[in-house]
Specification:
Eight copies of one chain form a homooctamer.
Chain A lengths: L8 E3 L4 E3 L2 H5 L5 E2 L5 H13 L4 E4 L3 H7 L7 E3 L4 E4 L12 E6 L5 H13 L3 E6 L6 H5 L2 H6 L2 E6 L5 H6 L6 E5 L11 H8 L7 E2 L5 H13 L9
Parallel strand pairs in A: 3-4, 7-8, 7-9, 9-10, 10-11
Antiparallel strand pairs in A: 1-2, 4-6, 5-6
C-alpha cells in the first residue's frame, strides 16, 4: 500500500488528521481524548500546531497535560472541564464573538457545563455561567431571566429528568440547546431519561445533543456564528 | 369443586367481588372496565349495589352505560373521563372531604385528568381543575400558584417530557402525585419518557403512578384521607 | 373557581392560548393538531386570528380544513406536510429571512421534510428542497454540495439508520439539524435507531429533534434568526 | 457577572442554597451527597446552619463525616443509611409527628429502608421497622398486619420483583409508598423490574418513587403532614 | 428438488408435520393457529388424524372451526380458550392423569388461563380453576390454599405486575409455573413487566414461560408426567 | 417495638429465618450469599443448624467459608459453583432421588451449571454433567442423546443466543429447564438475549428461570419430586 | 431551484433514481414498495425500464401490480413474496449463477423466505427451498444436510428464538446469512429476540440482516458473486 | 458416566474440542479466550497442536502468552488485536487467498479492526488497512475508493452511529460486513446504536456481526472462500 500524499491531511498509522476542517467546517479538528493514548494525543496535537492551528483536547486528564506541556508552551488544563487548550501566538478570531449563557440544573452537572463553557470560550465567545438553577426552586431561575434574554444562545445542561431546557425554552426567543447529563440514578438510566425528556419537550424549537456532550453543544453554537460569514464558493 | 361460601365476597365464574374492601381499605371495589364484557360489568355492578355500595366504572363507554342504565337508575356517564358512577340513595361519606387541584399540562391530557377529577369527586372531594398550564408558557402556571397553595393535595397530569409535577412540587408543600400520560410521539415512547422523568424529578417528595392512571392518583389521595380515621383493630 | 382575567391570554375550558408568545419567544403559538378535536382547533384558531396573529396548524387533515375554511378565508391546506396555514392581510415579517436547505434521505421521508419546509416558509424563509439523497448513492448528495454551502442552515431528515445529517455535517459549516423519521422496519424501532444514531454522530455540532418532528427543526432555526434582533429588556 | 443579592438564598460558585424552602415547601433543603465533593458538602451545610436550619445529608460516607464533625458538633453518621444528621439546639417541630412503618422485603434492601426510616425520624416521626417480610414466606408479613394497620403511612421497600407494596396495599387503608431497590440480578435489570412492577400493581392507590430512593419516600410522607397546617398566603 | 420420503413425517409444500413427536417427546404435535391459513390448518389436521393422533389447535377461531367440523366429526371449539380439540374414537391415555390447579389473578387473564386449562384437560388431566385471586385481596387466595396444596402442579396466570406465582410459590411445595399475560397498560409494557417480575421472584423454584403462553405451561407440566414412564432406549 | 415470639421463625434484627419452609415447601431455606455480610450468613446458618436443618449457601466465597468452617464442621466449599454445603449427621432424605442431567453449552457457562448440579446433589439427587455441547458442533450433543433420554429431568445452561434448551427440548420427553447465562458480549445484553430466546423457543414445554440462576433450576426440579409425597393437610 | 442534468440519474420531484447502480454496485436499483404510492412506483419503474434495466419491486401488492401490468408487459406478481418482477427481453446475466438454499424454520416464516428466494432467482440464481425445519424436530433438518452441503450459500430464515442459522452454521462451510423474522409473540418482541440471538450465535462466521429483510439477504449473496468479476478501474 | 471415545473430538472435563471442524466447516476451532483460565486455554491449544492444526486465540492477553510460549514455539501475541497465533511448520493453505480491506472509522475502533485483520491474515489472506476514515471527513474515505474497489470483500468497523458500512456499501460491489463497536458514550448504548444503525442501513446487501466481533467478520469472509472448493459429499 503505497503512500497517498495529500496537501490537506497528515496521515499517521492510527489517524488521518483533518487539517482542512478549519476551512471546510469553520473550526479546526478537536481531539476527543477518551480512548486515545497520551502518545497519540501528543502526535495529533503536534500536527495541528505545525499547521498553525489551535489545539483543543476534551475528555482528558492531568497525565496527558504533563506530557504535552513542554511541546505546547502556554497550554492550560482545566480539571473541572477536563480540557486542554492551546492557541498559537498569532491567533485571529475571524468571527464576531457571541454572548452565551451556560445554565446547569445542579452541582453535579458542572463538569459537562464547564466543558461547554470552556469550548465556547476557546472559540472566542463570552460566556455567562448560571448554575444550580434546577426547577425544584424555580425562583432561582426566574431571577436570572434578564441575563438569559440578553444571550445570543443558551446551553442548558441538566441530568435527572432534564427539565431545565424546557422551562428556559419557554422564557427566551434565542436558540436553546439541551445537554442531558448522566447525573442521577435508577430510572434516570444513565442519562437516557433526561435525553428523551428533552427531545419530547413541550417548548418548541429546542434541539438536543448526546448525553454529557458539552462540547457538542458548544460546537453547534459555533456553527450558528458561521452563517453570517462569506459563503464557501467551492466544493 | 364445591362451593366455598364466604360472608364477605360474592363468587361468580369469572370474578370474586371484594365486598369487604370498603371496610378493609376504606373505599369500595372499583370496576376497571377495559377487557371486561358489558355483561361482566353489569353482573359485578349488581353485586356491589346489592351490598349497599356505590359503583364506579373506569375505562368504559356509552355501550356499557346503555346496558346498565335501567339497573342503576340515576347513574351517570362522563364521556371525557370515560367513567360511569352511581350512588345509593342513602350515601353517607364518613371522611371529611379534601380540597384538591387536578392540573394538566396540555389539552390532550384531559381524558386522564378528568378521570382523576371525577374519581376524586365520586369519593366526595372538591376538585379545582387547572388545565393547559404546560411549562412552555410558565406564566400560565405561575398565575395559579395561590390556588395550588390552597390545596390539600395536587394531581399533576402531563405527557411529553412530564415536567409539570417537578415544577409544581417546587412551589407547594402539599402532596403532589404525578400522572404521566401517553400523549406525545417518537421519543415519548407511549408515556415511558414522561414516567421516567417524573420518577427522577429533582423536586423531592413527588410520587408517581402508572401511565394514564388518573384513577390511581385519585385512589392514592383517598388513602391519605384515611389516616385521620379511627384505626382498624382487627386483622 | 372564578375567572382570572389576563391581558395576554385567552382562557377556554380546555386551553390557555399563549397570545404573548409572539413577543416573548419571537413567533406565535402553533397548534399541534393531533389529539385535538376540529372544534378545539377552530376555537384556538379564532383566538389567534382575533389577536392579529397568523395561524399554523400541524398534524392536521382535510376534515379540519373544511371546518376552518370559511372562518379563515385564504387559508391553505398542504396534504403532504399535513399543515394548514393562514396569514392576516397586514402581515409584516420583522426578521430578515434565511436561506435554508431541507434535505431528505428517501421518498418515504417526504411528509416530515415537507412539514419542516412548509413551517419555515410560513415564517418567511426561502427553502431549497434536496430530496432522495440517501448515502447509499453518495454521488447524489455530493452533486448538491454547492447548494448546501450556500445555506444559512440545513435541516436533514432521514429514517432507517439516519446517516444523512452526519455526512452533511462534515461537508458544511452552517447549523445542521437532524430530524430522525420513523421510516423503516425491524431494527429501526420506529425511528429510535435513527434518533440514537444522529445523537452519536461523529460529525461535531449537529443537534437533533424528536422523531418525525419536522416542525421542531423549523422552529429551532427560527430561534437562530432571533439573535440578531434587539434584545427584550423586560422579564 | 455581578452579584445578585437575595435575602432568601446564598450563592456560591457551585450552588444556590434554597434557604426559603423550609417555608415554601415545609422542610429545609436536603443535601444529596453523591457527586459532591466533601468541601462542597461542608460549605452548603454551613450555610444551612447559619440560617438556623437542620442539616440532612444523604448518600454520604465516613470521610465526609470526619470533615464535618467539628463544624457540626453533635452531628451523627449512620453507616447503614449512609446519612449524616444535625439539628440546631433550639429545634421546634411544628407539625404533629406521624406513626410510620418502614417495611423491607429482604436483608439486602436494608440500606434503602434505613435511609427512609432515618429521614422520617429526622423530621420528627416515629418509625416501626418491619424487615425481611418478603412474600415468599407470607406468614411473616401476615403476623405484622396489626402493626401495619396502626400506621399513618407505610413505606414498602423491595427489590427483585417488588411485590411487597402490592400485598401490603391490599391489607391496609393508609397511604403506601413503594420504593423499588436495585437488589437482584439478571432480569431484575438493576431495579427497573421492581419499579415497573410496583407501577402496574393491582392494588389501587399505591404510589412509587425512584429506584433506591428511600429519601424520596420519606419526603413524600412529609408532604402529607403539611396538609393540616395553615396555608401559605403568599406566592 | 425431488421427494425425500420418510416414514415418520408427512411433507407438504409449507409444513413438515412431525408425526414421530408422540413417541419422541411424549405427546403429538400441536397446531399453533396464528399466522396459518384455515386451509393449512385443515391440511395438517388431516395428516394428524390419518396417523391416528389427536388434534389440538391453539390461537384459532370460529372460522377455522367451521371449515374443520365436517372433517373432524365430534371436534369442539372453545371460544374463551380459542382452541379446537378432537380425539380419535379409540384414544388410550397412557400416562396417569395429574390433578392440576390453574389460577388467574384477574378476569382479564381468563383467555390465557383457559388455554392452559383446556390443553391440560386435552391431555387427560383434571383441572381445578381458581380465578380472580389477585393479591390486592389476599384473603381470596388464602381461602383456596387447601385446594392448592392438593395439586400435583399449579399454573399461575397473571398480568400487571405478575405477583401471583410468587405468593403461591411460597405457600405450596409442588411445581408452580408462572404465565405472564399482556393484560395491563403503560408500565406493563405488554406483559414484559409481568414476565420480568416472575423471573426475579423471591419464591424459589418457580419457572416461567412466554407471555400469554398458556399452552406452554400445560405442555411443561405434561413433560413432568413423562418421568415416571419407561425410558426410551434408542436415539 | 417489643418482641413477637413465634414457634416457627427466629427473628434477628436483619432477618426472619423461615424455619417452617422445610415442611411447607418441602426443602429448607437456602441462604443467598450475595449482598449479605459474612456475619449475617454465619448467624442465619447457626439458626438453621440449631433447628436440625441442612445448610446451603449460594453466591458465596472462600472468605465466608473460613468464617463458617469451625461452626459447621464437615462443611464444604465448592469454588466453581460458589456454594457452601453442610449436612447434620443424622440426615434422612425423605424423597426418592432423581436422575438428572445438567448440560452446558460452553466452558464459560460452567459456574452456573455447577451451581445447579451441586444444589441438586445437595438435595440428594444423582447428576450427570454434559458440558461443552453447544449447537455449533451438533454432533457433540447428539452423541449424548441416550444419556439425556435416561434422565428424569434436564437443566440446560447456555449463554450467547441460548439455543441449547430448544434443541434438547426437541429430543427428549422429560422436563427441560433453561438457564440463560450472562456469558457473551454486545448483543447478548448480559444474558437478556439468551433469556428471551429461551422464552420464545419453538420447542414446547420448556420453562425458564432467571439469568445465571442455576440454583433456581435445581429448586424447580426439587418441586417436581414433591408431587409424589403425601399432601399437606393444613393451611 | 433549477435543473441539475446528470447523465446517470433521472430526477423526479420525489426520487433520484440511481441508474448507475448497476455498474457501480453490480445490480440495478430495487424499488422498496412500502411507503410509496402506486404512482411513484410506476414512475420509477418506467425510468428503470427506459434505461434498459430489469425491475424488482418488494413489499408491494396486487393493487400496484394492476397499475403496472400494462406498462411492464410480462411482469409477474408473487403474492407470497409480495414482489413484482419484470425483465427486458434482451437480458444477459453477466455473473455465473449460484446454487443457494433458502431455509425457513416455520410455516409463518414463509413470506420472508419467499422474498429472499424470489429476489435470488430474479438475479439468475438457482434456489432450493427447505422449509419447516425448525430445531424442535431436529431430524427434519438433519435429513437435508446433503443438500445444504451442496449450496454455495445459505439463507436461514427464523422467527421466535431464531436458532436455525446457528445450527446450520455448525453443519456447513459455506456462507450462512441469518434473517430474523417478526414471527412470534410476547418475549419475541417483534423479532428483536431472534435478531439478537442470531448476532450472538455460537456458530462462527454467521452474518445477519434486518428483521424480515429477505431481500437484504439475497442482495448480500449477490455481492459475493461479484468478487470473481473484473475489478472496476475508476472511482 | 463412562468414557465415550470418539475419533474426532478430545474430551476434557471442561471442553469438547471440535477437531473435525477443519473438515466440516473449512477452518479449525478458534479459542475465545475471554472467560477461560490460562490453563484451560493451554490445554485446548495442545489438543489442537497434537492434531496438526493451527492455533488462534482471541480476546487474550500477555499473561496467557507467557504460559503458552514454551509449548507453542514460534507463536506470536499481538497486543492491539489481543490475539495469539501459532502455525505448525508444515502448513498448507488449501484455499486461494483473498484480497481484503479492513476499514475503521476512528482511532478508538482499532482493537476491533486489528482483530479482524489479524484473523484474516491468520487464514492466509492479504489485508489492506484503511483507518480513521469516518464520514465526518468524507474526503478521507473517498480518496481510498480505488483500493476499496480492488478488494474481494470489505470489513467496515465503526462505533458511534456506525455509518461507515452504509457509505462504503454504496461505493463498491463486493461483500461488505459491518462490525459495530462499543466505542462512544451516552446514546451509543455500548454499541447497540451502531449495531441497529448498520442493520437498518439504506445500502442494500450489507450484513452485520455482533458488537466488537472482529473475529466474526473475518470468519464470515472465510466462509465465502469455501464456496469454490469441492463439496463435502457426506453428512
Amino acid at each position: 500500500m503505497k503512500s497517498r500524499p495529500s496537501p490537506s491531511s497528515k496521515s499517521s498509522p492510527f489517524a488521518e488528521v483533518d487539517l482542512e476542517r478549519l476551512e471546510r467546517c469553520g473550526n479546526s479538528e478537536v481531539i476527543f481524548g477518551a480512548g486515545k493514548t497520551p502518545e497519540q494525543i501528543l502526535s495529533i496535537s503536534l500536527q495541528l500546531k505545525a499547521s498553525g492551528q489551535s489545539v483543543l483536547i476534551t475528555r482528558t486528564d492531568a497525565t496527558v497535560f504533563q506530557l504535552l506541556q513542554s511541546s505546547l508552551p502556554g497550554s492550560r488544563f482545566d480539571p473541572s472541564a477536563r480540557c486542554i487548550t492551546w492557541h498559537p501566538k498569532k491567533l485571529k478570531i475571524k468571527n464576531k464573538p457571541l454572548q452565551l449563557c451556560v445554565c446547569a440544573a445542579g452541582t453535579s452537572d458542572l463538569p459537562v457545563a464547564e466543558e461547554a463553557a470552556l469550548c465556547s470560550e476557546f472559540w472566542g465567545n463570552k460566556v455567562t455561567r448560571i448554575y444550580d438553577v434546577g426547577v425544584a426552586g424555580l425562583h432561582r431561575l426566574l431571577r436570572r431571566v434578564p441575563e438569559l434574554r440578553q444571550a445570543d444562545a443558551i446551553i442548558a445542561v441538566a441530568g435527572m429528568e432534564g427539565t431545565l431546557p424546557s422551562v428556559i425554552g419557554g422564557l427566551v426567543a434565542c436558540p436553546v440547546i439541551g445537554v442531558p447529563t448522566s447525573v442521577g440514578y435508577g430510572a434516570n438510566l444513565q442519562g437516557v431519561t433526561a435525553l428523551l425528556g428533552m427531545l419530547t419537550s413541550c417548548a418548541s424549537g429546542l434541539t438536543v445533543v448526546n448525553i454529557d456532550n458539552g462540547f457538542g453543544a458548544a460546537a453547534a453554537i459555533e456553527r450558528m456564528k458561521k452563517r453570517t460569514q462569506p459563503k464557501h464558493p467551492r466544493s
